[in-house]
Input
Amino acid sequence: MIQFENATRNYGKKIAVSGLNLTIPSGELFALLGPNGAGKTTTIKMLVGLLRPSHGVVRVCGHDLVTETRSAHSRLGYVPDEPYLYDKLTGNEFLRFIAGMYRIPQHLIQSHIDREISRFELHEFADDLAENYSLGMRQRLIFAAAFLHDPDVLVLDEPMVGLDPRSVRIVKDLLKKKTAEGLTVFMSTHTLAMAEEMADRMGIMIQGKIHFLGTVSELREQVDIETTNLEDLYLKITSIPTTDQINSPDNK
Output
């Protein structure tokens, strides 16, 4: 489970995320949508502990990301939008390093690594240095690392970047299977078709606030235009004027 309770993040005078209240239960795949600069990246960084909220609380499986950081981190996996690896480690060595970070028992490490290498079809390059990996290979290894310790919560930031169609299908099928087993998934994406296909609920963030929260069907009911196309619905709801536009001379 994921909980944001009045979570706010300021950068000086700029409010990136404002009073976010959101609960995502076990077994739900939640998609966070929004234009560039809406606050999605800040939200994810608070969720994975890379940023502290200026106010409010963020919890993972009941653990506060600030006061119970280690306990919270042990329950989540994270796939960032840019897959950073240690270039002088092989895929196998990187996974073994990650296993140590998550304190997987020594007698289980190899079986967990073998499982993820098989799951993400890493056999061909698992013993190659990461510096020789393509973007897609890096992304598959990052997914393997995120699943290595059997997390209860998975955080995905533009997860399909660089993946070929077969790898995308592997990831989609795995997410469907794992959410059915109780995994909570928080996904930020600009790929509306994937959000429509995969998400149980979605939130649309604009200027640091959630302006819509619900299913695609509920979004269609809320937006007063004759279309079933998610792209049209999204563009309609994100056309809310910005503060600068409202205060501009043309709007006075």
